[in-house]
Amino acid sequence: MSQITYYRADKYPLVVTVKNASTGLPIDITGYTFKLTVNSEKKPEDDSNQIWQLEGVLDADPTTGRVVFEITDTQTNIPVKKYYYDIQMTTDSGDVRTIAKDVFEITMDITKN
């Protein structure tokens, strides 16, 4: 994955497909868990600057490799700026791997309600 950009106070899910690096095909994520964490620091030493963290929800058919993070306006209604994210995957056997990491940007929208 690469940079993720949301407009301030937007609400829509982030869908991630986990693929085999060699084949490019989706992997079976049955029994896996996923966390999306957003932090104000690129290389945090602890969770003191963590903005929020969400658990991912597996697709009804985990063989698609799809996991959904239900991002709401609670997560995106934060100051406009660049943050940092990573997605952590824990396998059914307990192995933990960071599968994505980059910039999570909140940008200003035009419409004001």
Walk me through the structure.
The chain is mainly beta and 113 residues long. It has one domain (4-107): Sandwich (Immunoglobulin-like), CATH 2.60.40.3350. 4% of the residues lie in helices and 43% in strands. The protein is built from one helix and eight strands; from the N terminus they run ββββββαββ. It has one helix at residues 73-76; strands at residues 4-7, 14-17, 33-39, 50-55, 57-58, 66-69, 81-90, 96-107. A five-stranded mixed β-sheet has the order 1-8-7-3-4, with no helix packed on it. A three-stranded antiparallel β-sheet has the order 2-6-5, with no helix packed on it. A hairpin with a 5-residue loop joins strand 7 and strand 8. It is globular. The model has no long low-confidence stretch (mean pLDDT 95).
